[in-house]
């Protein structure tokens, strides 16, 4: 009890008396003791514990001693050794706010002031903290005192013998107490805690008494700011605990800490007290009114700190109005945050907030746009500029942030200023997965140390860890000494277009960039159309009426036809040479509707890149998860940002395509921008050598384009799909057809690989990069498809359904019906459905059901003689269950799997719609979108659903009879289950029939131009909906249409 002020034996007995009357006496006493402990801690750690106890007790959760209470979980689930780490409270706080952080980021909207702390906090891996602190604070001390033994305590320090040490007289005079270090986004104090350790070693080396060092560090050296008050409190707690570990008595008279939250002011901040001069305080009050949004970014106006402190002293000692004294703590806090933000520091170290400008609320956006033009794209870059501003001349700034500032054009001015004025002393380029809790490729990081010294006589050390896929492996490789680039002269970066931080670029590459012309002189890359509403103006080509689709047209002839939809390059997945021809755009009447909408949206009437529409060119995917996917684009395409394009002359288009598809071009692109975005500016700045400038007969690229084109057309999602690959050879045996296809696709794959390697070899030699690049291309970078039995059998089934619907025909190649009037004479050998309605049920209730039709398709397409063999081949490819026949497996595929395959193939815009009664699968029927008419629903109801109801009545009667006649318990159980199943299906079917009748009476007509997303939702409750096709997603995608109605 001696450690708990105010808790004597009488008080304890009084508590026991109260507890005896409480329903949970142990809980009562525990809560009282816990609050007494907090009161005791408030004397030594006032930043974290408040002496005002009453309100705190209100926030304590109940049942603290229960088995599942938070206290029990903390004790049981966290190992005891973890509690020995001072920063465990910080870890718990990050976990506490992580759920809110995910919610805020996931919302993809403007982030409010209240949510900024949760959205921007991220715990820094310890080894990265050590790198930053050792190479900034430690590096500064070693430069000032090269004789110091401090490097023995710094395993993450990167020695740089090229930079002078001990020659700067200003640095030589540095004492330990001069070493001010601030973290302007300190969070729970992870960086400050390690800075404490390093400062302790510096003081100790200089002969200070160990018991005196902690107070000196807290008083003179460590500073911290954060927008989150709770985080700042935890940072204060962490450094105090660190100090207490070195001096157990420090909490008896704790020094005043230089760590605080940056708190907002308001109209009631300043009381009308005579002791306070309003004209002295009001500028500060005004400056911090948006501190909950801006935090450390605020620059306070000039003020006289001593004068303001004297006024506070008078107010605190005044008896004139005791209520005014209650304002003193808040005003002291205001003064402290203003003082900390007005100073400069020898070292600034931070893991700053990450928040893109798209998430800025209005206050943040206005402030950043006004004060940080060069870094306004993201808060992490703003904090780079802030850190440099907060550091003294010859001081150091260290940070970890996203690598985008190193490469993107939006940061070019920031890079140029940084590279000309300051020195990057060292950098560890981390890439993806530097943080254990962040997976994937999106967040790519770098950490670096910058000195506010001229780069003229200094160089930098760089460590490249981007190819390691875990935080642990990155640290291990860092310590191994591998992948290091020493003595890099940052002036060389100016030779690279955009001054990107491509520290790994060889002298030969730098020479090429410095001497060669840019590609834009010979093939102008440009950004294309921005529609302002892609949901309204774009479709997948298979959604539309093919009669309104124009391909292979020139700009001069495009308006000669009554067409609406035209091919549209929109990027897509990584693919080279040819392909990703998925989209079409509404460019009817020279894009009249788009132009009108753009003007209404505040854009220009003229269309970006319009001069190049419909021209033959080269396109690439703006966003990629891996490599530079460049493709030839034939005549007749429009293009957008995601499918940016370049347009060389016709006589050099093959050579330019070959160059852009080579690993040489990709290497240059990575030097200019190794992020996931391949920007037009980067392509425009690719260096061009003589062999690219003049026409050459570069047949290699043409061959590669042809192979890739043939591969693209092997699948029905190409508008030039002729027929299925398994039907192109005169054989009765499906297994033999697959073997032929397998051999042909493998040959094409290897031939394209050979051509790609020849292409690489040609350009490697042309650019003189034999010592740096090799021509080999691994299998995973060849972007055409090999045969795949499971995929190809499923696609054959899809083609068969297309023949049943009349979309395709066994008598004629290519697309037959996709909006045109149906002509049954085009389907002689295998007749298409007369109404494009094909029932799918778990039993063969209909003569024209999908399984019956599929068997007939195989009979006609191959041979009656091999029907059983081919059915077995298909069933085995789909993987049979034990005891399942081939026809049973095929029926199960149609009932349970086909629609999901179709939705995936057609990218959530299906053209065969599954009308289904529900989860019991009493009834299902595929309907072909392009042959739907206002009578279709009535036909489904009268021809199939009503007939099925009659058949189910008969099935139920038979099941009842089987149950009545069952002699064994097993037979009775089976008959009972079957009866229940049939009865449930009949109930489902009755409800479905009623819904069908309602919509059938409405005689709904469809406009294919409205797209699948809108048209499908008009049949909500009648058509398939699942996790792979959510009605809510389709409704969102077609909101534009509802707004027009």
TrEMBL record:
Protein name as catalogued: site-specific DNA-methyltransferase (adenine-specific)
Organism, scientific name: Chroococcidiopsis cubana SAG 39.79
Coiled-coil annotated spans: 965-1002
Keyword Disulfide bond: no
InterPro entries per record: BREX_1_PglX (IPR047939), MethylTrfase_TaqI-like_dom (IPR011639), N4_N6_ade-DNA_methylase (IPR050953), SAM-dependent_MTases_sf (IPR029063)
Gene3D superfamilies listed in its UniProt record: Vaccinia Virus protein VP39 (3.40.50.150)
One of the protein's GO biological processes: methylation
UniProt lineage: Bacteria, Bacillati, Cyanobacteriota, Cyanophyceae, Chroococcidiopsidales
GO function terms (MF aspect): site-specific DNA-methyltransferase (adenine-specific) activity
This enzyme's EC code(s): 2.1.1.72
């Amino acid at each position: 009890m001696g450690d708990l002020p105010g808790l004597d034996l009488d008080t304890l007995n009084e508590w026991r008396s109260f507890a005896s009357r409480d329903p949970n006496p142990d809980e009562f006493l525990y809560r009282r003791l816990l609050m007494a402990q907090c009161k005791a801690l408030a004397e030594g750690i006032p930043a974290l514990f408040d002496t005002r106890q009453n309100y705190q007790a209100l926030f304590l959760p109940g049942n603290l001693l229960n088995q599942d209470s938070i206290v029990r979980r903390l004790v049981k689930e966290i190992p005891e050794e973890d509690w020995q780490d001072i920063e465990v409270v910080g870890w718990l706080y990050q976990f506490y706010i992580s759920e809110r952080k995910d919610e805020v980021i996931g919302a993809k909207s403007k982030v409010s002031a209240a949510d900024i702390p949760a959205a921007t906090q991220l715990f820094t891996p310890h080894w990265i903290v050590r790198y930053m602190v050792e190479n900034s604070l430690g590096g500064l001390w070693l430069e000032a005192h090269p004789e110091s033994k401090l490097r023995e305590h710094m395993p993450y320090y990167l020695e740089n013998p090229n930079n002078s040490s001990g020659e700067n007289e200003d640095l030589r005079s540095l004492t330990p107490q001069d070493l001010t270090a601030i973290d302007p986004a300190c969070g729970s104090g992870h960086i400050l805690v390690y800075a404490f350790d390093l400062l302790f070693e510096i003081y100790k080396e200089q002969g200070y008494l160990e018991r005196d060092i902690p107070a000196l560090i807290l008083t003179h050296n460590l500073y911290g700011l954060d927008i989150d008050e709770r985080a700042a409190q935890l940072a204060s707690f962490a450094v105090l605990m660190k100090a207490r570990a070195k001096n157990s008595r420090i909490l008896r008279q704790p020094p005043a800490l230089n760590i605080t939250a940056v708190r907002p002011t308001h109209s009631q901040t300043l009381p009308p007290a005579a002791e306070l001069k309003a004209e002295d305080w009001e500028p500060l009050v005004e400056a911090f009114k948006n501190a909950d949004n801006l935090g450390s970014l605020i620059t306070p106006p000039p003020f006289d700190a001593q004068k303001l402190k004297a006024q506070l002293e008078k107010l605190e000692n005044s008896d004139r109005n005791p209520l005014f004294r209650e304002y003193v703590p808040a005003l002291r806090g205001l003064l402290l945050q203003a003082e900390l933000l007005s100073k400069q520091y020898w070292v600034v170290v931070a893991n700053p907030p990450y928040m893109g400008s798209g998430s800025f609320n209005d206050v943040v956006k206005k402030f950043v746009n006004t004060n940080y033009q060069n870094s306004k794209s993201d808060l992490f870059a703003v904090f780079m500029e802030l850190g440099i501003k907060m550091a003294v001349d010859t001081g150091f700034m260290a940070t970890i942030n996203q690598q985008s500032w190193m490469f993107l054009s939006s940061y070019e001015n920031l890079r140029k200023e940084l590279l000309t004025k300051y020195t990057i002393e060292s950098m560890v380029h981390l890439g993806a997965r530097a943080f254990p809790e962040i997976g994937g490729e999106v967040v790519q990081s770098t950490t670096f140390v910058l000195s506010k010294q001229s780069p003229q006589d200094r160089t930098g050390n760089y460590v490249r860890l981007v190819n390691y896929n875990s935080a642990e492996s990155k640290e291990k490789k860092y310590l191994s000494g591998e992948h290091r680039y020493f003595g890099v002269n940052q002036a060389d970066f100016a030779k690279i277009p955009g001054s990107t931080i491509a520290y790994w670029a060889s002298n030969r590459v730098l020479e090429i960039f410095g001497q060669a012309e840019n590609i834009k002189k010979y093939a102008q890359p440009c950004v294309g159309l921005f529609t302002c509403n892609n949901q309204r103006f774009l479709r997948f080509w298979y959604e539309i009426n093919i009669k309104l689709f124009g391909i292979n047209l020139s700009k001069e002839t495009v308006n000669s036809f009554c067409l609406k939809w035209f091919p549209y390059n929109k990027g897509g997945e990584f693919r080279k040479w040819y392909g990703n021809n998925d989209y079409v755009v509404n460019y009817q009447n020279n894009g009249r509707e788009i132009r009108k909408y753009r003007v209404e949206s505040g854009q220009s009437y003229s269309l970006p890149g319009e001069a190049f529409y419909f021209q033959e060119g080269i396109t690439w995917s703006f966003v990629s998860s891996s490599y530079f996917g460049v493709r030839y684009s034939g005549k007749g395409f429009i293009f957008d940002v995601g499918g940016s394009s370049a347009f060389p002359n016709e006589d050099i288009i093959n050579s330019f395509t070959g160059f852009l598809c080579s690993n040489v071009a990709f290497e240059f692109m990575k030097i200019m921008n190794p992020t996931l975005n391949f920007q037009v500016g980067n392509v425009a700045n690719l260096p061009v050598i003589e062999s690219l400038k003049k026409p050459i007969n570069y047949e290699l690229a043409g061959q590669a384009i042809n192979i890739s084109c043939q591969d693209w057309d092997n699948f029905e999602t190409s508008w030039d799909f002729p027929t299925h690959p398994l039907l192109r050879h005169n054989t009765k045996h499906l297994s033999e057809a697959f073997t032929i296809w397998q051999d042909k696709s493998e040959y094409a794959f290897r031939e394209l690989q050979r051509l790609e390697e020849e292409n690489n070899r040609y350009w490697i030699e042309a650019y003189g990069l034999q010592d740096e690049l090799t021509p080999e291309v691994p299998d995973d970078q060849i972007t055409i498809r090999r045969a795949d039995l499971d995929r190809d059998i499923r696609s054959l089934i899809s083609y068969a359904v297309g023949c049943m619907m009349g979309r395709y025909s066994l008598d004629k190649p290519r697309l037959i019906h996709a909006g045109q009037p149906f002509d049954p004479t085009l389907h002689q050998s295998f007749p298409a459905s007369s109404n494009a309605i094909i029932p799918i049920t778990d039993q063969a209730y209909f003569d024209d059901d999908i399984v019956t039709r599929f068997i007939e398709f195989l009979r006609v397409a191959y041979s009656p003689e091999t029907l059983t063999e081919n059915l077995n081949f298909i069933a085995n490819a789909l993987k049979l269950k034990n005891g399942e026949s081939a026809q049973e497996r095929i029926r199960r595929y149609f009932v349970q799997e086909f629609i999901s395959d179709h939705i995936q193939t057609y990218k959530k815009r299906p053209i065969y719609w599954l009308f289904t009664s529900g989860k019991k699968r009493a009834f299902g029927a595929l309907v072909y979108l392009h042959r739907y008419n206002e009578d279709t629903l009535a036909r489904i109801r009268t021809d199939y659903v009503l007939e099925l109801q009659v058949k189910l009545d008969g099935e139920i009667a038979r099941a009842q009879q089987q149950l009545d006649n069952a002699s064994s318990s097993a037979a009775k159980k089976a008959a009972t289950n079957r009866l229940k199943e049939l009865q449930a299906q009949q109930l489902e079917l009755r409800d479905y029939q009623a819904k069908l009748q309602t919509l059938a009476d409405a005689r709904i007509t469809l406009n294919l131009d409205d797209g699948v997303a809108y048209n499908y939702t008009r049949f909500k409750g009648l058509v398939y909906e699942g996790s792979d096709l959510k009605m809510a997603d389709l409704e969102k995608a077609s909101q534009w249409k509802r707004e027009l109605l």
